Amino acid sequence: IPFSSGAHAYDIFVSNGDGLLPEKVEAATFIQSPNQTAREELAARFPECVDKLFCVRRCLENFPEFSPRPPKNPQKLSMLSVGRLVPKKGYHRLVDLIAVANQRGLEWSLKIVGDGPDLKPIRQEISVRKLENRVLLLGASDYSRVEEEYRSADAFLFSGIISTNGDRDGLPNVIPEAMAFGLPVFAEANPGVKEAVVNEETGWLVSFQDPHETIDCITNVFARDSFDPVLSKAYEWVREHFDPEKTTAQLMDLHAR
Prior knowledge:
The chain has 257 residues and is of the alpha/beta class.
């Protein structure tokens, strides 16, 4: 029976993430991955199968109408991050970022939407650093609540890292979602992320391992009169690559082969 299969970051990069990956790649009619980074890794491992490896991006259900964001005082910013509370998200770096910003006299706050096994250690770190009023863990939320947070935040932060077991994100959907809502995105310069976030063109690539440098970058961006051209280009990129009609048509074409 002919079949196709998907291969995501966990399947590819975590040891035995998908224990049957070699067999699937060999036997499948095609393999689809949600970003070019994952596809390139598969191509490097299975060069004999490169002709049946494809990048088929996910899609977004909603595309709000793009509207310029009003200027915001860089001294007082409300940040947002969305994702499961797991090691690969690097949330401890975001807690550190807010702590350092607080030490520098900046009134920055951070909301994290999501739940997971790292809830307790993250909450403990927030308590130890006395950031209860600055870093808020909102838990798991339905998407309507997440949309509200996208609309009300000043910036979106993505601090993904490679965890000790090799797990990592490719291009998580939360980045194009934030871009679709016109949020300035500040993201760790991971390979999958760089497919969407081109520094100073569709967002800003930073290293959260250096909180001072990241704080300087964010402050300088918000000190500008306007950064709408960057947000507009980010919005256009998402419309081009995450339109459900386009991605579905691509998948249908592959199934029709």
